[in-house]
Design brief:
The chain is of the alpha/beta class. It has two domains: 119 residues, Response regulator (Rossmann fold); 93 residues, Winged helix-like DNA-binding domain superfamily/Winged helix DNA-binding domain (Arc Repressor Mutant, subunit A, Orthogonal Bundle). It has eight helices and twelve strands. The strands form three sheets. It has a five-stranded parallel sheet, sandwiched between helices. A hairpin with a 3-residue loop joins strand 11 and strand 12. Helix 1 crosses helix 5, helix 6 crosses helix 7 and helix 6 crosses helix 8. The longest helix is centred in the middle third of the chain and has 15 residues. The chain is globular, with a radius of gyration of 18 Å.
């Protein structure tokens, strides 16, 4: 199920038509109130949020989603007006998984949705990864620190996964950007730094296991 929040009814109807034609179930909402009301009844596989909405805008909706444990890892694609670089960077830094610049084609939209859903899907190999007091379960899509379940965004989860898969390996910011955000992402490497910072904060006492390698990037300490 895909939830689309778009106040322009013509655009919203076109988005829903394209998604349903591609085999997805989809529901549309004109604003945040109806969207959050629907969330109480059903959790979608992905949400598409227009930034420019009357009342509560897409950025505020995204903040609320990431602040709730129930939706902290919900994949989100933001729709931004073409040329609004600040909105795009802000959305990604707050935990959006991808963005579309308006006006966008319906084929591109469906392709982006499929790509985000593929990245969000747990991998079948090696179900549980452990490093010291950290534990990550690919199948359940959960992470624990000192036995405490973490409310991670999808990007934070994928960063932790990338680091835990190769303990001791140094990743450059560019490598992490490509691994987590994809080769088509045109943002700056500081996005990685921002997400590492929020990830460390959520890990609490285990956050020190993510080491900064000056002038290069980051690595996960190899611990038993």
């Amino acid at each position: 199920m895909i939830f689309c929040v778009e106040d322009d009814q013509a655009i919203r109807d076109l988005m829903l038509y394209a998604l349903r034609a591609a085999g997805f179930e989809a529901r549309g909402f004109s604003g945040g109130a109806a969207f959050f009301s629907a969330l109480e009844e059903e959790r979608p596989d992905l949400a598409m949020l227009d930034i420019m909405l009357p009342g509560e805008d897409g950025i505020e909706i995204l903040k609320r989603l990431r602040a709730s444990a129930a939706t902290a890892d919900l994949p989100v694609v933001m729709a931004t007006a073409r040329g609004t670089e600040y909105d795009k960077v802000l959305g990604l830094d707050l935990g959006a998984d991808d963005y579309l610049a308006k006006p966008f084609g319906m084929l591109e939209m469906v392709s982006r949705v499929k790509a985000v859903l593929r990245r969000a899907k747990p991998r079948p190999d090696q179900e549980v990864l452990r490093s010291g007091r950290l534990e990550l379960n690919r199948t359940a899509h959960t992470a624990l620190a000192d036995g405490r379940r973490l409310a991670l965004t999808l990007k934070e989860y994928e960063l932790l996964l990338a680091l835990m898969e190769r303990p001791g390996r140094v990743f450059t910011r560019e490598q992490l950007l490509e691994a987590v955000w994809g080769t088509g992402y045109a943002g700056e490497t500081r996005t990685v730094d921002v997400h590492i910072g929020t990830l460390r904060a959520k890990l609490g006492g285990c956050g020190a296991c993510i080491e900064t390698v000056r002038g290069v990037g980051y690595r996960m300490e190899a611990r038993e």
